[in-house]
């Protein structure tokens, strides 16, 4: 038996064991090397599993050789392998960036703890994406959430503590709802294995405990993915956390929560139970539209770029949920593609804003005046990512919105096409505010000496910006993976 056979387990075990090792080492440089090695290994394992699933189908790994559903199963299919590549890829790019950004934004005595928490968060997100056990979804969700609270609180700004506390309260409520939902499903099906649960639930469809489980899971997961109006924790968390934390969370955490929602809706409850017997499509549609317009409008009136793009994330989550509300293959494809595309775009934006923080001392619109002359690389990167948020052709965001529009047309809902385009115009407004300040105003005296950040910060950000353009021109990986994942979900395969 080759060691590659154990890649599903090593995917989670390596970063999970690396986390306490960084505490024992207690040195920033050694902790950085360990974290970097663990994240790059996770990326290697994710890519290997993606190819394995493409060539041979679903990978099932029985923990402790106990066969499912009796034992815990790690299960990798087209959707979970896609998520593993996103999470590990973002981590592998963000970690080199942290070397310089953490030095500026996190107290020195807490540097090694930063890498400990980062690895725990990574292990939790990877575990959520790969586990086939309902209770383990909750366990890994808590591992990632608890470490996230600490990562946010590590920011030098004292408001980071308040943001972390708000997230802790709302995150705990969400986790409680999720574990109640999983418990009710276990009560009715007698299993925690998600695939087995999906097979058994047909006998108890429509019963009150199952409907209650659906309600608890929907609300709990919606809190985690920051679906409007359950998004109150997100703006402050992204705005006051260290830049590398904002970049990592914006690109991965809410996306993994959407993955959990898809997994329960389609693999456990089934499409018919959620969308045909209940009006969930209408509920999701209303909440998605509210998030798209309300959050974008609020973003326009923010004076700090981190808060602008934090509210933008709430709006983009609206687009992701909008695709889900169509209850169609094209809509679901748009949802999965936008998970990836928005992760790249928003990760790049917050990494670039970290460079602005380092050079200009903040990210307020007043401080970015004249930035186009002082920091041309950073400014151009933010503009390109802004174009992706708008959905301009040639960027990754266009692919996502194109599939949303196709889904709306297929449903005959031309009014939704108009609303998608109208909400994109709101994104034009808040992106233009940056363009106006950076390119049409003179630098302030106290920021006139601002220069581009070090290469250790520029190169990782450039990789994500390049990815935003590349996946807007070549969508074979994103759309291809999403299409195959949708076939699995909509086909009812377990």
Task: Note down, in words, how this protein is organized.
The protein is mainly α and 494 residues long. It is built from 20 helices and 2 strands. The chain has helices at 7-25, 28-56, 78-105, 111-130, 134-153, 159-189, 194-200, 208-225, 234-240, 243-269, 271-276, 280-300, 305-325, 329-360, 371-374, 376-390, 396-410, 414-439, 455-473, 476-490; strands at 59-62, 73-76. It has a two-stranded antiparallel ribbon. It is globular. The two termini are 26 Å apart.
Question: Which key phrases capture this entry?
Answer:
2% strand, 2 strands, two-stranded antiparallel ribbon, 2 domains, globular, mainly alpha, 494 residues, 20 helices
Outline of this structure?
The chain folds into two domains: 1-277, no CATH class; 279-494, no CATH class. Helices cover 77% and strands 2% of the residues.
Give a short account of the largest sheet.
2 strands, antiparallel
- If strands are numbered along the chain, what order do they take across the biggest sheet? 1-2
Number of domains: 2
Pick out the low-confidence regions.
none
Number of helices: 20
How many angstroms does the end-to-end distance come to? 26 Å
Proportion of strand residues: under 5%
How many β-strand stretches? Answer: 2
What is the share of helical residues?
over 70%
The overall pLDDT average reads: 86
What string gives the helices and strands in order? HHEEHHHHHHHHHHHHHHHHHH
**What structural class do you assign from the helix and strand content?**
mainly alpha
Backbone CA Rg: 21 Å
Shape: globular
